Amino acid sequence: MLLEPLKQWYCDECGQVIKSPEEGWIEWRQDKNKKLFAFRIVHNRLASPLKPQRNCNHKPDEESSILDSHLDAFLEVAQIELLNILDPAISGIDKIKDFHNFVDVFRRLTLAYYEEARLYWEAATADGYFSGENETFAYSPYTLKRLIEQKYGDQNWQLGSSIVYQLYRRDI
Ligand SMILES: [Zn+2]
Questions:
Q1: Is the pLDDT assigned to residue 46 strictly greater than 50?
Q2: pTM of the predicted model as reported, rounded to 2 decimal places
């Protein structure tokens, strides 16, 4: 086990561990049609290993605005905030541009062991680790913890480190 569940994450920019919620930052972009995309969990400016030259945050661009929050504050209301974004009565219809990205970040913030287990998701799927199981079981803390500890975490630690980097570069 490399991470403390729901208290540590891999930064979507630099790939290094965010050691506590106080070091974290959540951010996403809003395009000119008010659609939300590029949800990410990153180091905040003070904790970024990339300083002083740069930081881990989204860079401003002409096409979108950036919405963000301290991760520790966001975690206290994460389910409320994320569900409000989904609720058409509050946020309007079709607010989310990339549902997979949104759901992935939702899971990373709310499902114990998911952040670490997702490193091995593709390999586990290819191996048939989830075959015959329903989706609820696949995302249960028991399954995710077992996946990390018994199946992939130890022998594939190096593999995991390189996968996490590829995952995050792909999401940007
Ligand atoms: Zn970072």
A1: yes
A2: 0.85
